Amino acid sequence: MLNNWDKWMAKKHKKIRLRCQKGIPPSLRGRAWQYLSGGKVKLQQNPGKFDELDMSPGDPKWLDVIERDLHRQFPFHEMFVSRGGHGQQDLFRVLKAYTLYRPEEGYCQAQAPIAAVLLMHMPAEQAFWCLVQICEKYLPGYYSEKLEAIQLDG
Rab-GAP TBC domain location, by residue (predicted)? Predict the structure, then answer.
């Protein structure tokens, strides 16, 4: 299905939905989430953008808050157990890049666990674009400064 994604989406959308409901095998979750979220398309449309954001210094206001939250994300998971380890570094990179990509939205603590789970299944650049899609397409306004969309839904 993943190798012929466009064909399956065009003609057998219900079959994809049923397979997702049954459960996506752990070995395929990263790839499937990229396709399902639209993160794969965003990545292809924006080559080099994540690297550009990653190399940018970032807003000190957000960097400090993100840094304080890193150790709270899945502290017993092997990726995030050590301070300054590769998991925490990648999480920092993804969250910092998002604050630069959407400076009007910035960072919200609720983004960190989502980004961490994405990183458990895919590299940082792919996790970033999936996070972008989740924040923009599926949960717009959930991570805004005043959390307007969450309050409306609540």
Answer: 23-154
What are the tens digits of pLDDT across the range 85-100? 899 999 999 999 999 9
- Residue 64, classed as helix, strand or coil, is helix
Angstrom distance (rounded) from CA 95 to CA 74: 16
CB atoms within 10 A of CB 65: 17
Number of domain units in the chain: 2
Q: Which domain holds residue 9?
A: 1-36
Instruction: Count how many Cα atoms sit within 13 Å of the Cα of residue 4 in the half-sphere of its side chain.
Output: 7
The alpha-helical segments, DSSP class H, found in the chain are 5-11, 13-22, 29-37, 39-45, 49-55, 60-69, 86-101, 111-119, 124-133, 148-153
**Cβ pair 118, 33 in contact under 8 A:** yes
Indicate which CATH number applies to the domain containing 59. Answer: 1.10.8.270
The Cα-based distances of 152 to 27, 55, 144 in angstroms read: 36, 36, 13
Please, what's the largest Cα pairwise distance for the chain?
48
